[in-house]
Amino acid sequence: MYFSCNMLKRIIFYLLFLYLIASPTNGTSEKPFRNWLIHLGMREDPRDVTFKFYNNTSTPRNEFTLLNSMLISSAGQEDNIHSRIIKNSGIPLVDLGGHYYYFVTHVKANYFVAMEICRNHGMTLLSIESEEENTRIINYIIKYLSKIEHFWTSGGDLGQEGRFVWLATGKPYNYTHWSPPNPDNAGGEHCMEIWKIGDKHYIWNDKACNNDYHFICELKDCTEFCR
Asked: Are 174 and 129 in contact (CB under 8 A)?
């Protein structure tokens, strides 16, 4: 059969195209989910669809479920974005004013281990940047977690006595909610907690960093959870 030069070029280009779209891009036999499947109207076997939450490959899910949960359009859908961040994080994030918090109530840790745990989850130990944020957090604790008396934050004066900064950001306080006469550095107290006093009243307090308390992690910037 006679093939023109142009026809041969078209056949070669078509075969090359089929090879490229069928081949994995990561050098393994695993076929990760690709956005172009949507545009081409193609489907992979759902058993081949894998994705990651927190750098851990999860169990395969139906591709249609993936489309609904992971590829929601962000245009004009602020509520969907927020719910998607919480859903995709894999941990029980709480949305308070557009910031996301993880209230760690199942384990206690000293200040440094608490910071390490938050970082290990892709978050930071809590930094409170305004009166409004402080009010939202305390109101949530009063409503849902009022039996807990102590929560670590990232505040402290470990670098210089009396100069309190948020160690998660390096920024000095621009708002405070201390319980007088605190901070008093009684017995070498250099780390800041949210402390329950009375029945339903929470205030800031400096405390020895080696105490084991519950703590609050936060995610203020949309990072891998939005992807």
From this structure: yes
Q: Alpha-carbon distance 2 to 118, whole Å?
A: 68
Residues 6 or more apart whose CB falls under 8 angstroms from that of 203 comprise 177, 178, 179, 182, 194, 195, 197
**Structure confidence by residue, pLDDT tens digits, 181-212:** 999 988 899 999 999 998 889 999 999 999 99
Distance of alpha carbon 217 from alpha carbon 122, whole angstroms: 9
Mean pLDDT check: name the lowest of 20-24, 41-45, 94-98: 41-45
Q: Please answer whether residues 58 and 52 qualify as being in contact, where contact means their C-beta atoms are separated by less than 8 angstroms.
A: yes
CA distance 142 to 145: 6
The model carries a pTM of 0.63
SS3 205: strand
- Domains of the chain, earliest start first: 5-70 (no CATH), 92-226 (3.10.100.10)
| pLDDT 10s digits, 29-77 | 443 333 333 233 333 333 333 333 334 444 444 433 333 343 333 334 5
What are the structure tokens assigned to 38, written together?
A: 């949507």
Query: Which residues is 173 bridged to in the sheet?
Result: none
Other Cβ atoms within 10 Å of 21 Cβ, number: 12
Torsion of CA 5, 7, 8, 14, to 10 degrees: 150
